[in-house]
Amino acid sequence: MIFDLIVNEEPIHTEAPADISLLHFLRDHLKLTGTKEGCNVGECGACSVLLDGKLVNSCLILAAQANGRRVVTIEGIHAEDGGPNDLQQAFIEYGAVQCGFCIPGMVLAGEALLNSNINPTRAEIREAIAGNLCRCTGYQQIVDAIQATALKRQEKGRRD
Ligand code: FES
Ligand code: FES
């Protein structure tokens, strides 16, 4: 099957099996291995990506369902200079990264939330990352990092 879609702002035109999951299409065909394969059944969130701006588990979606649409993976999240963006920097500063396996999905869950709600409560942040499991950090630092980024983006919005 021919696939035509936009991944991280780049047009992709390629052939892959019609029944391939979006997760395996990204990892195996496009070599975007920042998207992690955890449970493969929709329970851990390690495979989270944005599909037309919405957070989805790429293990549960056929790549065919993303055809003609826009996908953002963790490789598409960065500062203008290619380094960590403000949210990724906050994860580092708040000690929200330990083994790192959950982090691509957590960052995308955070971006999805902040794109729709620039002033989330801690409860809303917890709800937004409820589908993303972290076995290391206890979540507190992750919530801190997302909340700090929300505040910074609000301040920046007021200045701009
Ligand atoms: S690998 Fe997709 S939810 Fe766990
Ligand atoms: S940092 Fe290890 S699973 Fe989250």
TrEMBL record:
CDD domains: fer2. InterPro entries: 2Fe-2S-bd, 2Fe-2S-bd_dom_sf, 2Fe-2S_ferredoxin-like_sf, 2Fe-2S_ferredoxin-type, 2Fe2S_fd_BS, Beta-grasp_dom_sf, Diverse_Oxidoreductases. GO terms for molecular function: 2 iron, 2 sulfur cluster binding; metal ion binding; oxidoreductase activity. The keyword Metal-binding applies. Residues 1-77 form the 2Fe-2S ferredoxin-type domain. It holds the Pfam family Fer2. The keyword Iron applies. Keywords: 2Fe-2S, Iron, Iron-sulfur, Metal-binding, Oxidoreductase. PANTHER family: OXIDOREDUCTASE WITH IRON-SULFUR SUBUNIT (PTHR44379), XANTHINE DEHYDROGENASE IRON-SULFUR-BINDING SUBUNIT XDHC-RELATED (PTHR44379:SF8). This is (2Fe-2S)-binding protein.
